[in-house]
Specification:
alpha/beta, 13 strands
């Protein structure tokens, strides 16, 4: 069986250089890296991950705790995390906290007990137990998609990466108002999530920008699930003066809203206009095609890995919150006519 020393002799470099190439621990000239990797392939060398972890106290693994992995949005985030991890020689251990604070605390402990080097977590609506555990055990962690406020006298306690939510939701409201709608309903997400709060804030900003009054009866929580989105849509349609346009705050609730509209034989956009937060692969296949805010899901995953690796390299640097811009996928469910443009005309949103 080939050893690291064999690889070093074949590549004409030191054992230390081979280690740096395989572990990404120091910059190496491209031609040197190529020579080492060619030698690894020619000799069939396989690094002993267990032995390396005993020496370095690192397992080169990342724990990922994300709810609703079956959701296309989180599936694409997972793809971004995996690509970023593999590119740097890390493996993934994945758990689903089910958006339940108690279960979230348990799965994070299980990941920690498996000696992951750090974690990427999409926190629940009540992340107090999660934060307490991570702080008590000094676990390197990045919060993904949802942010957690830090103490009042300081900034965030953990690195965080998410998409912009407030500005894009404002843009959806002003777009619908520009089409003449004066009663615009919002199917909001699970109370307590930062994304829910930010999208309601953006909704209110959009109303104010359009000169429209905020009516709390036009906001119904769909709990970020398809069934909840269906119930919230039904509640809004049951108002004495129902909305003429609807914004759904994530893709699962969009599916629920469409089911309710279908069950009531309401056409989109003929009877009610619809815009949604979260684009997804088949949004362009609906009739009408769905006007949506597209989040940079794969980029969010990759950025979370980058922040975590920076944290592992510099444990004492100040925590960062990174927000990535979204895009407006302009289609026809909002009531705009078909054009000869591309299937979805996209522009970057603030």
């Amino acid at each position: 069986m080939a050893t690291m020393a064999d690889v070093a002799r074949s590549a004409g470099v030191s054992v230390a250089t081979v280690s740096h190439v395989l572990n990404n621990t120091r910059p190496v000239l491209p031609e040197t890296r190529r020579a080492v990797l060619d030698a690894v392939e020619e000799l069939g060398y396989t690094p002993n991950g267990l032995a390396r972890s005993l020496v370095t106290s690192r397992t080169r693994s990342i724990g990922l705790a994300v709810s609703a992995i079956s959701n296309p949005y989180f599936t694409e985030i997972l793809q971004g995390v995996e690509a970023g991890a593999v590119a740097h020689g890390y493996g993934l251990l994945i758990a689903d906290p089910h958006d339940d604070p108690a279960h979230e605390r348990r799965v994070v402990q299980l990941l920690h007990e498996r000696r992951v080097d750090g974690m990427i977590v999409a926190p629940s609506a009540d992340p107090r137990a999660l934060v307490a555990y991570l702080e008590r055990h000094r676990v390197p962690a990045v919060f993904l998609d949802r942010v957690v406020d830090g103490p009042e006298d300081g900034g965030p306690r953990f690195d965080q990466v998410c998409a912009e939510s407030t500005g894009p939701t404002t843009a959806l409201v002003t777009h619908l108002a520009g089409l003449g709608h004066r009663r615009i309903g919002l199917v909001a997400g699970r109370p307590g999530l930062s994304t829910t709060h930010e999208r309601i804030t953006g909704y209110r900003h959009g109303l104010a920008a359009a000169g429209l009054s905020y009516d709390e009866r036009l906001v119904a929580h769909g709990d970020s699930e398809a069934a909840g989105g269906a119930r919230a849509t039904a509640a809004l349609l049951s108002l004495a003066a129902p909305p003429t346009a609807l914004i759904t705050a994530n893709n699962a609730m969009t599916i629920g809203a469409l089911r309710t509209l279908r069950d009531r034989d309401l056409s989109v956009p003929g009877d009610i206009a619809l815009c949604c937060f979260d684009d997804f692969p088949w949004a362009d296949l609906f009739s009408p095609r769905l006007t949506a805010v597209a989040q940079p899901s794969k980029e969010l995953g990759a950025e979370a890995v980058r922040l975590l690796l920076e944290r592992l390299a510099s444990p004492d640097r100040p925590a960062l919150t990174v927000r990535l811009p979204c895009a407006f996928a302009h289609r026809t469910s909002c009531g705009c006519p078909e054009t000869s443009e591309q299937p979805a005309h996209e522009r970057t949103l603030p």
